[in-house]
Amino acid sequence: MSLSIPPEPSNLYEVLEIPFGATTEEIKSSFRHLVKQFHPDNPITGSYSKFQNLYFAYQTLTGEGRKRYDEEFRKNYAREFVKRKLEEHPIVLPVSRVRFTTGILELAKRGLMRKGFRNKDRRKVTGIDYDLIIDLKESEIIRPVIAVIPLTVRIVCRDCMGSDPHCPACNGRGSYKGSRNLKVEFPKSALVQGKVFEFDLSKFRPDSFTHFKKKFLRVKLLIHKNIPLRAKSTV
Ligand SMILES: [Zn+2]
């Protein structure tokens, strides 16, 4: 039989079930053990292709080919390692990638809005059932993504707990407007064109004094080949 065909898989160390850098003794010992199992003469566990792979790995790693193979292995491993590390590391999107969809003010300007207009009504009028859009580039969806979403909050006055009409800290208003950055991370697998996510904002409250204006925030992902220079707010 011929054993000159380069076999799959390419990781010869895996074939021999030994770590990279194993000694010749270890290679031989593992080969002897595995060859008993996979030799075609073995009627139960024998496998010609496995035997062939095994033999090729053994020959390469105990012969003159090992030096070259190890050099290639190291190079590939380093390349894979860097790639994998990069892919695990999330991209933090610039704030310009977060845009609020047609809001209450704009609807009001268009005469579509009255006070107390709710999301349900907005959906009915505009067909928009999300609060904001996150724009992503195609080249970014190979990594997890972190988006920082600025949200308006109402913060209860800590001096009077919102209950003293003569409180000097809040001028008796009980609370004041503030803003909080909501940091949300999307795993790679979630980065799907057009997907809408709903975040329960009560889980993001930094403390019991801070109240978000909404209970849920709906976020839609749009994936583009290129990001237009100035994303329009009309969607
Ligand atoms: Zn106060």
Can you describe this structure?
By secondary structure, this protein is α/β, with parallel strands linked by helices. It has two domains: 12-88, Orthogonal Bundle (Helix Hairpins), CATH 1.10.287; 92-224, HSP40/DNAj peptide-binding domain (Sandwich). 30% of the residues lie in helices and 22% in strands. It has six helices and eight strands, in the order ααααββααββββββ. The strands form two sheets. Strands 1, 4, 5 and 7 form a four-stranded mixed beta sheet that branches. Strands 2-3-8-6 form a four-stranded mixed beta sheet, with no helix packed on it. The chain is elongated. The chain starts with 11 loop residues before the first helix and ends in an 11-residue tail after the last strand. It binds zinc ion.
* DSSP strand count: 8
Q: Tell me, what's the shape?
A: elongated
Distance between the termini: 67 Å
Mean pLDDT: 84
Largest sheet: 4 strands, mixed
Low-confidence stretches: 1-9
Determine the fraction of residues in helical runs and give it as a percent range: 25-40%
Superfamily (CATH H level) name of the largest domain: Urease metallochaperone UreE, N-terminal domain
H/E topology pattern? HHHHEEHHEEEEEE
CATH architectural name of the largest domain: Sandwich
> What is Rg?
31 Å
CATH-assigned fold name of the largest domain: HSP40/DNAj peptide-binding domain
The structural class is alpha/beta
Q: Helix tally?
A: 6
Bound molecules: zinc ion
Q: Strand fraction band?
A: 15-25%
Domains counted in the coordinates: how many?
Answer: 2
CATH C-level label of the largest domain: Mainly Beta
